[in-house]
Amino acid sequence: MKLDKSLIYMIGFLVGILIASPWLPQWILFIITLAGANGLVVLGLMLFMRLGLVSFGQALFFCAGAYTTGMLCLLLKVTDLFVLLLASGIVAGFLAYLLGFLLAKYRAIFFGLLSLAFSMILYGVLVKSEKLGSTDGFTVSGLTIFGWTPETTQMKIVLYGITVLSVIVALLFVNMILKSPRGLLLTAIRDNEIRAEYMGASAKSTIHLIYIIAGVLSGVGGAIAAMVSGHIDPNMTFWTSSGEFVFIAILGGIGSVSAPFVGALIFGAIQTIAYGYSPNTWQMTIGICLIVVILLLPEGLWSLVEKMRKKSRV
Amino acid sequence: MSNIILTANNLNKTFGAVTAAVKINVEVEEGACIGLIGTNGAGKTTFVNMITGYLKPDTGSINFNGMDITLLPPRKITQLGICRSFQIPQLYNTMTTLENLEVSYGIIALQESKGALTTNTNAIIPSFGKSIRELALDSIAKYGLTDYQDQITKVLPGGVRKVLDIAMAMSTRPKILFLDEPTSGVSAEEKFDMMDMIMGVIRNSGTTVLFVEHDMEVVMRYAQRVLAFYEGAIIADNHPDIALKDERVLKFIVGHSQAQHVLSEKSDA
């Protein structure tokens, strides 16, 4: 399998942070871990964008993953990190498999808004579920790894390690898809779906497959977010959460599998700094950043990397 | 006796008050080269669209190799062995010429691997015995597209887009190929060179071909049989020399002077 240099750099960066993690301030580790969780969701969105689709409801699967982790901990006392990650991915993937039968029939704004509608239905259900804490949500705690319960500081490093592992697996998997005929087919369907169908391809089943893959990635991202923040609530599936993922996708661009993680890291940094300086108006800073990116870098931050590459070739 | 591979039985199609197909009955022999002629709106493309699955006939049936394909979607019909090119070339416009062909062979690779996620562009397609990249490069050489290999298709000249459109359709190794106005938008100087090259490749592969065409010189040169359409119905089905002398064809489609010109050119040649 051919690996881009950028992918190798991204993996190197994540592993480098892991090695340095015992000496890093915990807030930095927290931001990077959360960026990894968000990046997984956005990686799925990137696949949609390659198809010419935008999902405004990807937070549905993010939340489904988080609540699977939370409910397994709370109700069944399952606390192993790997089991929780696996279960969250499977539940979110299965949910995507079911919804995909309907969603794969729609295109453009209908696809986006239908996905949003499903995420808001889950929001409504969770808000009305008093056993799950209603709008307050509930705490996720007592996590273990192979029977070992790490201390708070150790747990942060362990969680970061698991995030790095998940991100690397996701990067290699999505990279494999994009380098395969199916990856080319995504762009072909975006460019000319009718022609792809006339060549014998099924756009519907391709979209359904990508929907499931994006669902699994989002579910794992949601599980990590639940573990890292130690708390889950219905806001995880609120439309603003989906909006944040779309924002990160636009910020990073779709030029490389590494772009969503670059976007997520920068989003995390902007959000933290903006919130630090102006807790009540940080959204305004995010909005201004979005306008700047759309005006100056319509293909996202990754287009800067592409430009630098072209210059170095010349 | 030739083997009949495609049969259209009593096809009818209307769009509101417009009648697009009336009692179309056609049998296509394996290996035939058939020209479909008629004025704009005569029903040629409707006929092609019904056979290739884009439109469903209101009544009637279509049989291909003994199988009823009337209600099948285009992709299933393509998988069975009927493919088409388009009047306006349908390409993947943000991709290069090579990538357009790689997608075509990639779709076949995915079908043969039953959609496996691990299939890559270097994998050998069992039925071809070559990789996707090798097959795409072979096609590029065969159809004279080498100079345009790495160009984005959006900026290709009209004639090259036509050739690529046909090369993509041929990549599916169809048993029947429909060409919708292959020479429209191609200059008078280039059209015969282009058609000679394309028809050469198609005939060498043993593919049955039906082509929609307004240029009677092209029809006379390549077609062994002509189906003449008028107001949704077939008004003549014969050898070109005979069809172009048919009174109704002369009256509604070709015109006496053009028919005489084309027939005399052919006899001179």
Give a nutshell description of this structure.
The complex is a heterodimer of chains A (314) and B (269). Chain A is an all-alpha fold.
General description of the model:
The complex is a heterodimer of chains A (314) and B (269). Chain A has twelve helices and two strands; from the N terminus they run αααααβαααβαααα. Chain A has one domain (7-240). Chain A is 75% helix and 1% strand. In chain A, helix 2 (26-50) runs antiparallel to helix 8, helix 3 (59-76) packs across helix 8 and helix 6 (152-179) packs across helix 7 (181-198). Chain B has 269 residues and is α/β, with parallel strands linked by helices. Chain B has two domains: 4-91 and 177-206 and 218-268, Rossmann fold (3-Layer(aba) Sandwich), CATH 3.40.50; 93-155. Chain B contains ten helices and twelve strands. Chain B has helices spanning 44-51, 74-80, 97-112, 132-142, 158-170, 188-204, 216-222, 240-243, 247-254, 256-268; strands at residues 4-15, 18-29, 33-37, 59-64, 67-68, 82-84, 124-125, 130-131, 176-180, 208-212, 225-230, 233-238. In chain B, the strands form three sheets. A six-stranded mixed β-sheet of chain B has the order 6-9-10-3-11-12, with helices on both faces. In chain B, strands 2-1-4-5 form a four-stranded antiparallel β-sheet, with helices on one face. Chain B is globular, with a radius of gyration of 19 Å. The chains are: A mainly alpha (314), B alpha/beta (269). The A-B interface holds A 1, 176-177, 179-182, 184-185, 187-188, 190-192, 194-202, 205, 209 and B 52, 73-75, 78-79, 83-84, 86, 90-95, 99-100, 102-111, 115, 117-121, 132, 168-169, 171-172.
